[in-house]
Design a protein that fits this description.
By secondary structure, the chain is mostly helical. Helix content is 79%, strand content 0%. The chain has helices at residues 2-22, 29-59, 64-96, 101-109, 114-124, 127-147, 158-161, 170-175, 179-206. Helix 4 crosses helix 6 (127-147) and helix 4 (101-109) packs antiparallel against helix 9 (179-206). The longest helix has 33 residues, at 64-96.
Length: 207
């Protein structure tokens, strides 16, 4: 039920954003302008609230320092697996398709951060690259929401979410695992979020 609600909200917002582009200006457009103006702030406040609750829960854990130290090690290990696995997938996609290696690696390097990857690739590699970067990384976030609750190994499954494990996927992960796994997911997402802009810049500059 929880996953279904998250998916419904995410999909509704996605479709509403596209609908706003197709509606002619003047009368109806102010509605979407108003929504766009306040929705970003509302989403940020909700995510901050979620992170606060998760942090509070982590602070109440027994043997906090031991678990935090272990979480940093596990989070860093999963981070390395996520980056290497994503780039390997980009390389494999290049070998299986006609797309250039710069394009496939750049799309894979987004690691779920579609709001950055799409516009960045559209500006540096063209509109097709931007569309691919946005869509594939948006689908990665969707797959995280759908698949994470069903995967038995909750720690390894963090890798699916990429950068989203620091924010949008974090409530899903904490709900279907525990506080320690939530902390690992946050650390993993933090490292990924730092890495994505660096990788995108480095890879796209090759072309």
């Amino acid at each position: 039920m929880f996953v279904g609600i998250i998916l419904l909200i995410l999909t509704s917002g996605f479709l509403l954003g596209f609908a706003g582009k197709s509606i002619p200006p003047v009368e109806e457009s102010w509605v979407f302008g108003l929504i766009g103006q306040y929705s970003v702030n509302a989403i940020e406040y909700v995510l901050i609230f979620f992170v606060f609750l998760i942090g509070l829960d982590m602070g109440l854990m027994e043997s906090r320092m031991d678990k935090i130290r272990r979480s940093w090690k596990v989070g860093a290990l999963i981070y390395l697996g996520t980056v290497s696995g994503s780039l390997f997938a980009g390389l494999l996609l290049h070998l299986l398709t006609d797309y250039s290696i710069v394009l496939t690696l750049s799309v894979a390097a987004g690691m779920g951060w579609y709001s950055l990857t799409g516009p960045f690739l559209a500006k540096t590699l063209g509109t097709i690259a931007g569309a691919l970067g946005f869509t594939s990384n948006f689908l990665r976030e969707l797959l995280t929401i759908v698949l994470y609750p069903k995967i038995p190994d909750k720690k390894s499954a963090i890798s699916i979410g990429g950068a989203t494990t620091m924010d949008t996927a974090l409530p899903i992960i904490t709900k279907f695992s525990d506080s320690e796994t939530g902390l690992i997911a946050f650390i993993h997402g933090f490292f990924i979020s730092i890495t994505v802009p660096v990788l995108l810049t480095a890879i796209s500059s090759i072309g």
